[in-house]
C-alpha cells in the first residue's frame, strides 16, 4: 500500500510560510520607527520600547502583527491609532507624523539637474 498524505491546514490558502501575512502592517510599523526616532537600529528601538528584537522584527517583516495589548502599547507610546496599525486608516492620526512617514517613504529629496540652458 502507498503512503497516505494528510493535507496541510494551510493547503489552498495561497500563502507559503515564507510569505508575510501582514506586509502593509509591517511597512507602517517600519515607517513609524523611522519617523519617531529616526533609528535605523531596529534592535535598539525595540528594546527601548519594551519589545524583544525578534518580536518587533516579525512585526516589521509582516510575519505577525501586534496582539491587541501590544497595539495599545504602541498607540499609547506613539500617538497612533489601532485602526492605523491594523488597517492603515489615517483618520485621527497626527498630521505631522503622517507627513514625516510620507517623506521617509519618498526617500531623500534630490536636487533637480541643472541643464545647460538653466546654467546660461
Detail the topology: elements first, then pairings:
Layout: H1 23-37, H2 42-48, H3 53-61, H4 68-78, H5 82-87, H6 95-106, H7 116-119
Helix pairs in contact: 1-3, 1-6, 2-3
Task: Give an account of the 3D structure.
The protein has 120 residues and is an all-alpha fold. The chain has helices at 23-37, 42-48, 53-61, 68-78, 82-87, 95-106, 116-119. The chain has one domain: 434 Repressor (Amino-terminal Domain), CATH 1.10.260. It has seven helices and no strands. The longest helix has 15 residues, at 23-37.
The gist of it:
The chain is mainly alpha-helical.
Please state roughly what percent of the residues sit in beta strands, choosing from under 5%, 5-15%, 15-25%, 25-35%, 35-45% or over 45%. Answer: under 5%
What's the gyration radius in Å? Answer: 20 Å
**Number of separate domains:** 1
Task: Extract low-pLDDT stretches.
Answer: 4-14
CATH topology: 434 Repressor (Amino-terminal Domain)
Q: Tell me the major beta sheet.
A: none
Structure annotation, total helices = 7
Average of pLDDT: 84
The first-level CATH class name: Mainly Alpha
Structural class: mainly alpha
Number of strands: 0
Q: Based on the structure given, which CATH architecture is correct?
A: Orthogonal Bundle
| SSE order, one letter for each helix or strand | HHHHHHH
